[in-house]
Amino acid sequence: MYREQIKVLDCTIRDGGLINKHDFDEKFVREVYKAVAQSGVDYMEIGYKNSRELFSSGEYGAWKFCDDEHIKRISDGVESNVKISVMVDIGRVNMDQIKPADQSPVDMIRCAAYVKDVDKVIAMANHFQEKGYETTINLMAVSRDRGPELDEALHQIEEEAKADVLYLVDSFGYFYQEQIEDLVKKYKAIAKSKEIGFHGHNNQQLAFSNTIEAIIHGANYLDATIYGIGQAAGNCPLELLVGFLKNPKFDVRPVLDVISKQFVPLREKIEWGYLIPYAIAGMMNEHPRAAMALREGEHKDDYREFYESIVDSGYGGK
Amino acid sequence: MYREQIKVLDCTIRDGGLINKHDFDEKFVREVYKAVAQSGVDYMEIGYKNSRELFSSGEYGAWKFCDDEHIKRISDGVESNVKISVMVDIGRVNMDQIKPADQSPVDMIRCAAYVKDVDKVIAMANHFQEKGYETTINLMAVSRDRGPELDEALHQIEEEAKADVLYLVDSFGYFYQEQIEDLVKKYKAIAKSKEIGFHGHNNQQLAFSNTIEAIIHGANYLDATIYGIGQAAGNCPLELLVGFLKNPKFDVRPVLDVISKQFVPLREKIEWGYLIPYAIAGMMNEHPRAAMALREGEHKDDYREFYESIVDSGYGGK
């Protein structure tokens, strides 16, 4: 499907970093950067911009903080048109420490928040937009917040936020295509001045098809990760998305190459992707944290018992 | 999604048998049968009905032939409403050796063929329908045959075939939801008197979403396999489909149980599911045989080279 406005954002290192405390070594990140650049992908999200006052530098790797010098070290000398993105969460970043865009290797700052924090995320995104960054607002976990509070948040974003892009985020890998159609249409109808983005999770093997559905209904910013890496079930696989898009600038071969050389060996060491506990969490519209805890314990393959435990907990809200 | 007419067909042993020459032991097949029965699934397809004159009994397991006594041994004594299905291919079955339905443990015979063999498959399906079986016609690989030959075949099936169900089959895991919508609508418009079925392959992680899309547009016969087992990338995972359907007769827990106990260990021994060479074959609308050969050789993770080799072969038809 060819639509010139479509932008692909690779968030391999950012979402993948949630599995390994953002501790990818520089050689690995540089190989990913090269592959992303060569494949014609528009943005690479390299990590979170967190305050070092809140998180220990000893406990987390470089991509929890994304210092300018780290970003420069993985990108210097690589021929590239890729823009660099970082993600920020409400209350975890010291905004005053972020330099203006013209003094930074970062091009885009993506601001993530739950619907209830819409005021905070608008203020944060406006702050960064005024510093010269491209900004997005990523409303997380909306599968749990589809009442009037969602409509209100969307109206408020349209009226008050300077952000370029508003993302629909399927945090729990819960949605299927009819719900994506409905939501993308709603986002576009209310947030008329914004581009719409989509970020899926792959709990039920629906991240790629939901991304296609979002494209069909007009979303132009599309998140994906190499070999689907990401927290728990992971994300929409970049290789499938790039293989699907018809824009001549995209080339799937560099992505295939880096999967062979870097991601197949990595998958032997750390786990992500389709696993039954994550599928159960997705069906139940649940955060995968209980499933992730199960996979780290002794009973990691006791699926029926895990299912019953989720049902017994009243889907987390009885 | 609840629609009373929906029937789920588990083809774990039949499609899974393509990986191991149909050599599942009876205990394993009995465990699958129990799980399928307890989960409320409507049909279990247990293998192929092939002529022993054409295939060596030494080379292939029991489920290449599906003798009545084998079927009885895995089902006897299990409380069950599951109907038993077998698949037949053009030219591989001695039709005269198949007893009438009232003398057989088999309820349904599914007749698979390419579009070019539509005359043969109609004759075969009519033969079995006259013997008292439920029958289906499964037109394979239609992603390669979507010209006027497909319309003609569909008209001919509507006019001449006694089969109850006509299956749309995405043999190469090539389709995405817009194509499924288009084809299900076409099948229903032409084959007005038939129920429509869907059988997907999971090369691009689209088997489940394509099955949902087929449901949305009125397909009532849905194929799936436990843990997505099947040739190459496998099929729509039964656990996801049963988790999605709202019909109260379905229960996902027995499927989860048999995955824990039987399929997790089996997946350590034989390979199926999402792997890059199968994804490439799917994108290219190719039979997975080259990808399967790659996975059995020394260069099984040389994805870029495999991609180039498929491009160089002109998608198999230059």
Describe the structure.
2 copies of one chain form a homodimer. With 318 residues, chain A is of the alpha/beta class. Chain A folds into 2 domains: 7-269, Aldolase class I (TIM Barrel, Alpha-Beta Barrel); 276-312, no CATH class. Chain A is 39% helix and 14% strand. Chain A has 12 helices and 8 strands. An 8-stranded parallel barrel of chain A has the order 1-2-3-4-5-6-7-8, surrounded by 5 helices. In chain A, 48% of the residues are buried. The mean pLDDT of chain A is 96. Chain A binds chain B through residues 176-178, 202, 204-210, 212-213, 216, 227, 237, 239-240, 243-244, 252-253, 256-257, 259-260, 264, 273-274, 276, 279-280, 283, 301-304, 307-308, and chain B through 176-178, 202, 204-210, 212-213, 216, 227, 237, 239-240, 243-244, 252-253, 256-257, 259-260, 264, 273-274, 276, 279-280, 283, 301-304, 307-308.
Provide tags for this entry.
homodimer, 318 residues, alpha/beta, TIM Barrel, eight-stranded parallel β-barrel, 14% strand
Task: Outline the fold blueprint.
The structure is a homodimer of 318-residue chains.
Chain A: E1 7-10, H1 12-16, H2 26-38, E2 43-48, H3 68-75, E3 83-89, E4 108-114, H4 118-130, E5 134-140, H5 148-160, E6 165-169, H6 177-190, E7 195-199, H7 207-216, E8 221-224, H8 238-244, H9 253-269, H10 276-283, H11 289-295, H12 303-312
Parallel strand pairs in A: 1-2, 1-8, 2-3, 3-4, 4-5, 5-6, 6-7, 7-8
Helix pairs in contact in A: 2-3, 2-9, 6-7, 10-11, 10-12
